[in-house]
Amino acid sequence: MGAPRKYPEELKERATRLAVEARRDPGSKTGAIKRIAEQLGIHPEALRTWVRQAEIDGGVRPGTTT
Description:
This protein is mostly helical. The protein has a domain at 18-57. It has three helices and no strands. The protein has helices spanning 9-24, 32-40, 44-57. Helix 1 (9-24) runs antiparallel to helix 2 (32-40) and helix 1 crosses helix 3. The longest helix has 16 residues, at 9-24. The model has no long low-confidence stretch (mean pLDDT 90).
């Protein structure tokens, strides 16, 4: 059995969606991950990792999909 998750899956999905949408808008792209992470109480590096994986899964960024 693995370690318990630090963040609930619903929070992870919501934060990722918000960050991906904010990064699409040139006006809010700068600092979007840090700003959203602070608002939701998530470590910015965790959110950055989730966004990176979402971009890979969506075909926007090269890499291995989940």
